[in-house]
């Protein structure tokens, strides 16, 4: 093939391959999270990658030609199909179908792990395909379900190795913000687009800060590349009212510090200062939502959630009320929450920042109802699998720092006319539940040994013509051989140790499985 005709091997932008080590670590992490979900009574569910576009929700930018934000195509019937944008909209469709069939028990508690796809501009840490691990309760309007999700999120993070003090679950209520937006003239269906722009601007608060968000709430913001993001078009008074709400926790914190400094007594129970801070925060939120029925209802729900969480033993070192949490999707209708990792890392510019969010979610009482004549309340949250895995690597969780899994035992090919004999040996090992493979390349013994070493094989099986004539096989312990080579290089001369731990042994062929099992067992403990 000429160079001109040769294809260039490349990945589409925003996509990535994943090696075996990442897959193994991801599997271990998902298993730990799954154990927590099942401890809470949630059961597994799987939905397809492709849904009818109309099922994905009104957050899509263009219903007539939805080629922005999601990957879409038309089928033979000219109906639009899309790769799923998240795991929540497919769940809503699934529940609605089963309600039609009268084949579901509510509340329906499920967890789902799977790939989702975003047709967005990729960048460092921003992929077009990524995995989420969700848990949702559908069919319960009680905020006890929201409180439970927050507690489960905290338990899941600790289960995978995030220590208490290195994370916080932040809780807000979309109704509180909706009440403020209503008060500044952004209520009603005709303002839905402007409200969504506001929500997406506020969702960038941690990254852009107050100044950047203020620009997005106003006329717009130009980033470092020169790209301009159109703003929500709010006036200065409207922007001030919204940012007052966002700064409520910091202002309450400053107030409590002032009160303590001037001799006000802190409650004596454990976490007394945090209790005082929460009371001050609720007072400020009461001011912000005064006169708004929606806002006051949202504040009351937050107080109940806080009561339930504290009663279950989850203190403010794990779960807090924070008005800065909004979540960017419009389908959230009530409590919203975010799991933030609080330890510091260096960003792409070398600045020290908090690691940030690894999970989030909230209540979406309208999503299932799009398919139904009656309302169906629901709440849940989603863990960003790749992002959480990156965090576990930073904190050196045992899930990702454990020893790399051993590779298979490799049976070397010393005589190409005896492939059938070597295949029989491999089959014997596999029948004994020992991972094994036959070398299938065309190289000589030296290259085969290098191959086995790179495969992290615990040992290799060798049978040339001499061993065959004697009815024996040689088994070379690759890890022991490497350790002895390092010991020799360091000047070690423990003859007794060397005699007891031979790196290569000859055994009768009928003892192949027994001897290999000894080596593999030693390496797995």
TrEMBL record:
Pfam families: HGTP_anticodon (PF03129), tRNA-synt_His (PF13393). Keywords: Aminoacyl-tRNA synthetase, ATP-binding, Cytoplasm, Ligase, Nucleotide-binding, Protein biosynthesis. GO terms for biological process: histidyl-tRNA aminoacylation. GO terms for cellular component: cytoplasm. It catalyses: tRNA(His) + L-histidine + ATP = L-histidyl-tRNA(His) + AMP + diphosphate + H(+). It is found in: Cytoplasm. One of its GO terms (molecular function) is histidine-tRNA ligase activity. L-histidine binds at residues 86-88, 118, 132, 136, 327, 331-332. It is an enzyme of class 6 (ligase). Its main location: cytoplasm. Residues 28-392 form the Aminoacyl-transfer RNA synthetases class-II family profile domain. Its EC number is 6.1.1.21. NCBIfam families: hisS. Homodimer. Belongs to the class-II aminoacyl-tRNA synthetase family. This is Histidine--tRNA ligase. The gene is hisS.
